[in-house]
TrEMBL record:
This is Putative phage associated protein. GO terms for molecular function: nucleic acid binding. The lineage of its organism: Bacteria, Pseudomonadati, Pseudomonadota, Betaproteobacteria, Neisseriales. GO terms for biological process: DNA integration. Gene3D superfamilies: Ribonuclease H-like superfamily/Ribonuclease H. Residues 149-304 form the Integrase catalytic domain. It comes from the Bacteria. PROSITE patterns: INTEGRASE (PS50994). Residues 284-304 are annotated as: Disordered.
Amino acid sequence: MNPALNERLTAVATHADTLGRGDKSAYLKQQAAELGMSLATLYRKLEAVAVKPSRKRRSDAGRSELSLDEAKLISSALMEAMRRNGKRLMAVRQAVEMLRANGKIEAARIDEETGEVLPLSESTIIRALREYRLHPDQLLQPDPVNRMKSEHPNHCWQIDPSLCVLYYLPRQGRDTGLRVMKEEEFYKNKPKNVIKIEQDRVWRYTGTDHASGAIVARYYFGGETSANLCDFFIYMMQAKEDIAKDPFRGVPRMVMLDPGSANTSAAFKNLCKSLDVHVQINKPGNPRAKGQVEKSQQHCGNGV
């Protein structure tokens, strides 16, 4: 539409709003004839130029009918009924029914017209949990992190030991002594069985180069000790026979580890100090800080 037509239509719409129903229809028919268009086309064009008033905001907008205290109880019940792997064992509806039956919450509203007490719907409760930031999806979100960037290979190495499900006994004839820790023999109610083979368990030390993603692994006896850590670190720095299979060699600028006793030992720190290697000890309970090597453990045998 051209500016002249827009101005004419705006004037028509403004005048039509001041007329009654019968007068308005006759007026619009007259204007449609003068403009050489059908009445339906005129209505469509008036719709395009008309300024519609914004919808009035509800007086109770932003207020939830579920109280914060009740939302906390529902959220707590949902989080308690959850396995460590994050699998949920209870739906919102089940949690609300259980808490209502025990008289812990009402989760209801009062009908202003009839005065009747009506239970809140499941969708209303879920919406309220999200408004209070108490929904399990929100509470289980990981903390925001920044991806670490390495400048080049040997800039940053990550090392992580992992206890395997294997152990060795003294060789007897053709018996190599290799055993698997079966669950029915080694569990919390039989600690003596674990003590018997404690020094014969196999530990896998895994190291990664953060820039290239290269992985190296080696197996040790005796547990997570400073001697095993130093030996593995020296092995990583040594030149290997086949560079295609074992690209690790040289001294890194820094090495990243968990805050274990072996990792923070004087023996390992003195080794790194003599090589001018910075030791980065991560905060406890933060495995994502060295997620590359944690993930690499799965590629190296998944605990086998």
